[in-house]
Amino acid sequence: MLPRKSVTWVLLLLLIFFNLSTSHSDPRWAAKKRRLRNKVRTMFYHAYDNYMIHAFPHDELKPLSKSFTDSLSELGNLKLEHLPQDYNGSALTLIESLSSLVIMGNNTEFQSAVVWLSENLTFDVDARVNLFECNIRVLGGLVSAHLLATDSTHRLGQGVYKNQLLTLAEDLGNRFLPAFNTPTGLPYAWINLKYGVVENETTETSTSGCGSLILEMGALSRLTGDPKYESAALRALRKLWSMRSSLNLLGTTLDVSTGEWIEYSSGIGAGVDSFYEYLYKAHILFGKEEFWRMFHLAYIAVQKYFKHGPWYHEADMRTGKATYWQLTSLQAFWPGLQVLVGDIAAANSSHREFFYVWNKFGVLPERYLLDHQMLHPTEKYYPLRPEFAESTFYLYQATKDPWYIEVGESIVNSLNLHTKVEGGFASIRDVTTMELEDHQHSFFLAETCKYLYLLFDDSFLAEQNYVFTTEGHPLPVLSSWQDRLPETYIQSNWTFLKTDKEVRRTSAMSKQVCPSTSLNSWECAGQKIESACHILDFHGDHRCLTDEECGVDSTNCRRRSCSMAGYCGLWLFI
Ligand SMILES: *[C@@H]1O[C@H](CO)[C@@H](O)[C@H](O)[C@H]1NC(C)=O
Ligand SMILES: *[C@@H]1O[C@H](CO)[C@@H](O)[C@H](O)[C@H]1NC(C)=O
Ligand SMILES: *[C@@H]1O[C@H](CO)[C@@H](O)[C@H](O)[C@H]1NC(C)=O
Ligand SMILES: *[C@@H]1O[C@H](CO)[C@@H](O)[C@H](O)[C@H]1NC(C)=O
Ligand SMILES: *[C@@H]1O[C@H](CO)[C@@H](O)[C@H](O)[C@H]1NC(C)=O
Ligand SMILES: *[C@@H]1O[C@H](CO)[C@@H](O)[C@H](O)[C@H]1NC(C)=O
Asked: Fewest CB within 10 angstroms: 32, 182, 203, 463, which?
């Protein structure tokens, strides 16, 4: 039984029963989705082909001047010192496009990209790069593409692929390791690819910089059999977690040599966002209870101290007092994460607010002052960010509510209307004037186009569960990577145990996500959707007297329990 006095109601949404509409299977919707899918495909190739013509092998395209920028190294080297004279970048946008090419079914282009990278890419350059960015974009892009190249679908021609991407990833992973050589194990924010940590390097970094490495570095360890990458990321994550306040809140920036906080205010946006995301996704990918325990406490604290209606403000980690009342474009990923947790109603209501702001300006501004209902005076830009499209995709997966297709359509139309230029897609400098900026970020191809495509065509997800990294690179959920089965599955002795002997974890990412909201039917979106661990509640209406009458949640294989009000749910209690 739950310690009832201390039960905290955290977003339960699980009791919201959808009236699952069947209109998604309506031929008109199918035609509309195909049409939109093709539109997104055209967008992706417009961005990709222009990059290949005007910028490759440099990092990113400048779509207005049809030239390039070597952003990966320029970020850490604004004066462009040290770089070799004839430096040609790291083909960043190509690396970021690999998994999107696979999702869009372009195996020939994927193959030639793999061949080019195998022969030409080197990390042995005197370039100071941001560890976090390089990890999510480059290491994540390579590891994900390696997994896609070697899965059972044989995408690459016979004999073409000899683990070259993994070799590159391993080389890069080794270049990351010196960053972790600090008294605390927390990594430096910056690393020189050739020489390691440079003299007098800044010791200031962010929470996401220390806490969003475990998926990529963990995957690298699983693939190479060498635990050192995962160990380094895990040690940093544990140290970071140990620095939380008594309210289970973290700050935004910290010092890696002292392990002390610099900025005590934090929220779910810039500098912190992917820390939360990776705790939960690491739990799905590696099946470690430790990640769930951290995420569980962190998630409750977010909902308790940051949430205000559908919005999330920032708060001081020491007191929980609200600090900044601002909506930022990066926060728009949160509803997508909530879908994975099964918190559909909270996800839906925040997503609607983001859509309201999107509609108000035509795109999502970087920062919006909630207390004044106005734009931030300087951060008025929209750099083609993916987070709102990402959440729209997750919500559609979970609910199949055609409304999200309409949202997706409006995103596609805005992007084409405001950001498409002859030479690609350009960021918006100011959403009030729609003045453009000469930059097409690689995440437009890795994420924005990918999530929109998957919203309209999820056939890629049919056979396999994936966790998407914070840069949108898919990592398959493999039972061989799972530490052990969740306790709930092992211990349960339920009447409803599935006959199916095969035990498979759900990533909550495929159609299996449908979950708790539709437990009363055995169906979701017209298809039987079962994760292996899913066990129905005893009563179809989810009423209960004791915990024993509740089942196991399909999104994360955790045992549901009986609330004070007499309903089964995934109650998070402290
Ligand atoms: C960069 O590209 C130019 C032109 O293709 C080539 O001559 C040069 O060798 C390249 N630089 C490096 C470091 O590979
Ligand atoms: C794959 O991408 C290349 C480069 O944009 C394009 O020429 C080719 O038509 C694409 N193939 C498919 C099947 O989409
Ligand atoms: C890439 O590598 C191949 C084979 O080594 C070489 O022929 C080609 O010129 C290289 N391309 C560039 C741009 O360096
Ligand atoms: C590092 O800092 C020390 C002390 O301020 C200074 O003497 C030294 O020149 C600096 N080194 C570099 C490479 O900037
Ligand atoms: C989302 O919220 C809207 C408005 O409150 C409601 O009409 C709709 O049914 C909700 N959808 C889901 C999937 O919860
Ligand atoms: C589990 O179920 C079996 C058969 O239904 C029963 O014999 C056994 O006692 C149960 N175990 C527990 C721990 O409830």
From this structure: 463
